[in-house]
Amino acid sequence: MMAYLLGVKDLAATRCGYSPLHETVRSLRLRSPDGGHAFPEQRGWAAGWARDHAGLDTDLLDTLLTPGGLAPEALTPRPRGCRPCIQDELSALAVTPADRLCADFRAAYARDGSPLPPLLARLLDDPYALRARLVTALGQYWTRCLEPAWWPRARTVLEADLAHRGRRLAESGVAGLFADLDPRVSWADGTLRVHGDPSGADPSGAPAPVRREPIAGRGLVLMPTLFADRAFGETSPSGTPAIVYPARGRGTMAEGSTAEGATRAAASGGSAVSGALAELIGAARARVLGLLDTPATTTALAYRLGVTPGAVSRHLGALAAAGLLERTRTGRAVHYRRSPLGESLVGASTLVPA
């Protein structure tokens, strides 16, 4: 178990954000034999990337995660701000001290209890060449596989999670902010505990001791990710500690990951709606309302429904005018979610036979 000791200054410095580079490196788990089983909602995406792997430096990419799924700290950075861009993070990686990069790789494999792959062992003898090759390989992987379609969809899920965190903090304070991160996270008496934290696991299988981490004014970053099934802590001797946790709504990544999935989403609206609700407000608006179990933007809804953003915008405007939706602006993006009245209407409609 990891126990974070948070003072008043630490709570004031606690923030939320996601890292595109973190998600890029974690997504490489999908190339492992168990990747599809660990993240079934990503299978369609991973299958679509297979043809794009040709020409990538897959020999190196396949060494960036240990067999147990651990990553070197330098490749999973704390976000600078809420939503850094991948280009800035790759630029920061390009000037990371080469000796630190090598130390991070060795530490990850040692903690995993796995030997260094032969290719990585050779590259560690030339840290500067390793660093340059890493930046190039990750940049090409991002550009070919993630950026065109996966990242816009993933970013919508991550942004919705940040919007949810902001509401929780506004409505329920710090206790509310931490309350629904994950069932393994608890907050009491100035201590944030992450139970069963895999980062402290003993490779032999022995129970891990409680690791107490005084934040000591460094603050704390809460990082949603699409590549975790439980929360875990990431610590740094000199940097900001983080809790990485499963993003809300990550299961919706399965929708639209393939042409077949997009067709199904367009036909059904991606969420079951009753005939009674469709008769009341119209089938199209019922589908939109049904999709908003988690906040989403106009563009994301249009993608999931297979219609134009203009058509979705008209439905959203009508639903908001009727008091069934609420809007939250995050930067340039506007996320919609069901209002309490909208939740009641959807809930009541499930009790009415279609």
Automatic annotation (TrEMBL):
Q: Does the keyword Transcription regulation apply?
A: yes
Recall the GO molecular function terms of this protein's record.
DNA binding; DNA-binding transcription factor activity
Report the source organism: Streptomyces rubellomurinus (strain ATCC 31215)
Q: Which PANTHER family match?
A: ARSENICAL RESISTANCE OPERON REPRESSOR ARSR-RELATED, HTH-TYPE TRANSCRIPTIONAL REPRESSOR CZRA
InterPro entries xref list? HTH_ArsR_DNA-bd_dom (IPR001845), HTH_CRP (IPR012318), Metal_resp_trans_reg (IPR051011), WH-like_DNA-bd_sf (IPR036388), WH_DNA-bd_sf (IPR036390)
Record domain HTH crp-type: where: 288-338
What are the residue boundaries of the HTH arsR-type domain, all occurrences included?
A: 284-350
Annotated TM spans: none
Q: Read off the SUPFAM superfamilies from this record.
A: Winged helix' DNA-binding domain
Q: Which domain of life is it from?
A: Bacteria
Quick check: keyword Protein biosynthesis in the entry? no
| Alphabetic keyword roster | DNA-binding, Transcription, Transcription regulation
The name this protein carries in UniProt is: HTH arsR-type domain-containing protein
